[in-house]
Amino acid sequence: MMNFSTNALGGTQTSKENTRPSSKMTVCQFQRAKQRTVLGVLNENELHVRSHSQGSQFSRHSSFTDSSQHTYLGCTSSSSFDVYVEEAREVVLAASGQELVSGNYYLDDESEALKNEDAKLLLELSSSLCQDVSMHSEHNESQMSGEVQRLSEYALDIYWQLRHNEVKLRPQPGYLEKHPEITSGMRFILVDWLVEVVQEFKLRSETLYLAINYLDRFLSSTAFGKRGKLQLVGTAALMIAAKFEEIFPPELNEFVYITDSTYTKRQLIRMEHVLLKVLAFRMTAATAKQFLRQFLLVHPVDATTENLAMYMSELSLLEMDPFLQYRPSIVAASAYCLASYTVSRSLWPSALQAFTGYTLTEVEDCLIDLHKFYIKADRLPQQAIRDKYRSSKYCRVSLITAPASLPFQ
């Protein structure tokens, strides 16, 4: 049986938290640091005069007011309100939205500038993203409400795209037949260890789901894997998933550390290359977590039910048989049903039946298997997931007793 170096997780070395750097550099300053060529820039005095003469509503500030502005094209700096677009030709747009500067050519008439679709887009970005801090705070709630409303228009399209994706990028349920040295118990231990690593590095749950998808798909596409290399494959899969999903993924030496230096940097890089090549760089896999998130948006539930559904969904990652034979959307639906029944004795709401196209009958087999696994979860030798969901952050849902039976059993 594999012996993963989980004791390294409890070491005294300070782990890297997935937090933003403390740099005060603004987007505009960062872009200037890249030595980018700008064809025309309004200096501070010119901007000050023009903004006052035109009754501009913008005020200057030198740092971000919230993390959500980190990805915006527009920004505010202490010197000017400019939007930079890195194309073959640089365009600089004054924040007042009244004047477009391109090289030495000025368009004083806004209506003329709007004839150009690119200029129109820039004007919209400038007027919406470079607002005063107080105005942004005042209208934040209404903007968020509008954003949710707009996203809801695409919810069904997103769902069916995920359904299409889950069929294309799913592992083979019986892939261990091609790996005589690897058993389902070894995979169970590996997944449990990956859960601990994700907790140690404070990574997102979606990173865990993706890593296990990469692991299973890799083993489905290869044969005669060595048991001594299974942890290496799992670590490389998590490293790739973190790069794909996290804003600030752990560094290479940190992944070496969590394996207790069982593998070198060179081995990890090589395995990363092999894994990406085998998966043909198809990394946008649909996971049960993504489906469950959509279900909870369509039909919200209380915090306890939501966390319990997340807990049951993660439990399904541990067992190959039977859960790999079910599509992630079915697993997510089963987790939702079981959590809802455990807390409030309801199962599959009509709203989700209409949204997903799944009837309770189609979910029933997976629901029964998940219920059986939920009942025995407290007796499993590996307890990383139960320990995770025992905290108050997740409403201590792993301590909730499973129902003795389901209504249709």
From TrEMBL:
Superkingdom as given in the UniProt entry: Eukaryota
Family label: Belongs to the cyclin family. Cyclin AB subfamily.
Biological process terms in GO annotation: cell division
Listed name of the protein: G2/mitotic-specific cyclin-B2
Keyword Cell cycle: yes
Keyword Cell division on entry: yes
Domain Cyclin-like stretches: 192-277, 290-372
Keyword annotations from UniProtKB, A to Z: Cell cycle, Cell division, Cyclin
Organism annotation: Neogobius melanostomus (round goby)
Residue ranges of the region described as Disordered: 1-26
Reported function: Essential for the control of the cell cycle at the G2/M (mitosis) transition.
Subunit text: Interacts with the CDK1 protein kinase to form a serine/threonine kinase holoenzyme complex also known as maturation promoting factor (MPF). The cyclin subunit imparts substrate specificity to the complex.
Signal peptide bounds: none
Domain Cyclin C-terminal: 286-403
